[in-house]
Specification:
By secondary structure, the protein is an alpha+beta fold. It has 3 helices and 9 strands. The longest helix has 21 residues.
Length: 168
C-alpha cells in the first residue's frame, strides 16, 4: 500500500507490474510500453486481408510518457528503501516512437524528464513551467541518483522498436 512508503507523493495505489523472487530477495520490474500509430496490410490464417489494419495506436503525450517512466524509477527506489528484502529493481521502457530516444529541447516544459541516451540525467524531475497543466496534475519529484539510459533497437515485423532498461 502507498501509505507504507515515506515520501510517496502520488494519489494512487502503489502497484508493481512484476515482482521477481529468488529465495528471500525481491526485485520489482516496472514496464512502460508507449506507441505511435502504425498501420499495415495483414494476413489472417495465411490469407491477405483487403484493408490496411492499425496494428499500433497513437498514444502521444510523450511528456507524460517520460514522466511516467521516471515515476516508475522513483517508485522502485521508494520500495527498495522501505523493504530490506528488495535488493533493487528494473524500469523497462519499450516504444516504436523514436522521439523518446532523441530527448527534449532545453526550452521544453518536460526537459528534465528527457530520456535521451548516453548521458547522466538530472535527479530533478521538475516541469519548467510550474503553471502548466502537466505541472498542476503531475507533481515534481526527485530520484536518488543520476541515471544513464542506453537505448537498444530491434525490428519486429517491419516496425522499429526501441527499448531501455534502467537498473535501480
Amino acid at each position: 500500500p502507498q501509505k507504507e512508503l515515506t515520501n510517496y507523493i502520488w494519489n494512487n495505489e502503489l502497484k508493481l507490474d512484476i515482482l521477481l523472487r529468488k529465495d528471500d530477495e525481491f526485485l520489482p520490474v516496472e514496464l512502460k510500453y508507449k506507441t505511435k500509430r502504425h498501420s499495415k496490410k495483414m494476413k489472417r490464417f495465411n490469407e491477405e486481408m483487403p484493408d490496411v489494419v492499425e496494428v499500433l495506436k497513437n498514444q502521444g503525450a510523450q511528456d507524460l510518457g517520460m514522466y511516467d517512466f521516471w515515476k516508475d524509477v522513483r517508485r522502485i527506489e521508494l520500495v527498495r528503501n522501505r523493504f530490506a528484502k528488495v535488493k533493487g529493481g528494473l524500469a523497462v521502457f519499450v516504444t516504436n516512437d523514436v522521439f523518446y530516444t532523441k530527448g527534449s529541447k532545453p526550452s521544453s516544459n518536460n526537459h528534465l524528464f528527457s530520456m535521451i541516451g548516453n548521458v547522466l540525467h538530472s535527479t530533478k524531475k521538475h516541469w519548467s513551467n510550474p503553471n502548466s497543466t502537466c505541472a498542476k496534475t503531475h507533481p515534481n519529484f526527485e530520484v536518488e541518483k543520476a541515471y544513464d539510459i542506453e537505448w537498444h533497437s530491434r525490428e519486429i515485423d517491419d516496425i522499429d522498436f526501441y527499448y531501455c532498461i534502467v537498473s535501480i
